[in-house]
Amino acid sequence: MRRRHFLALAAAASASPALAAAPRPITVMKSRGCVCCDGWVTHMRRAGFAPKVVVVDDLPREWRRWGVPDTLSSCHIGLIEGYVTVGHIPPADIQRLLREQPSALGLTVPGMPFGSPGMERPDGRREAYETLLLLPNGRTRVFSRHS
After folding, report:
1. Number of domain units in the chain
2. 49-59 residue pLDDT tens
3. What is the phi-psi region of residue 115: left when phi exceeds 0, alpha when psi lies from -120 to 50, beta otherwise?
4. Were 76 and a residue from 31, 37, 83, 108 both cysteine, which residue would form a disulfide, CB within 3.0 to 4.6 Å?
5. C-alpha Rg value of the chain to the nearest Å
6. What's the Cα-to-Cα distance from 30 to each of 2, 44, 56, 58, 70, rounded to whole Å?
7. Would you list the DSSP string of 25-66?
8. Which domain holds residue 89?
9. Where is the signal peptide (predicted)?
10. What is the largest CA-CA distance in the chain?
């Protein structure tokens, strides 16, 4: 009975996409010395992504290059599987984006909301924020809400 139980567990583990999948590469562009960006990169790594960090001198030029309006910008950009991600987006939102593959430029969390990944506060204070799906021509729609 134990052997059958072990074989069933081994089969389930090998079939699990989370266990079998290789880390997904993401290129992260950020300014030198940005601690909150480093925090977000840590969240991404823990969620099974493989971030490659590139320090850039002119981040606004980069987000404009990828079609992100200034009003929807933040402190770092990620490039993954044809999408752009801007700001402190929860890794689960990026996983959902890659799973659903909508016709969009990517995702953005404008600004730097307290409590978002990489923006945790020592006092635990959080603010509600939205992850926006970035559509062509600077339009958006709410992709997910966080509180």
Report:
1. 1
2. 999 999 999 99
3. left
4. 37
5. 17
6. 51, 14, 6, 9, 15
7. EEEEEE-TT-HHHHHHHHHHHHTTEEEEEEE-S-HHHHHHHT
8. 24-146
9. 1-20
10. 62
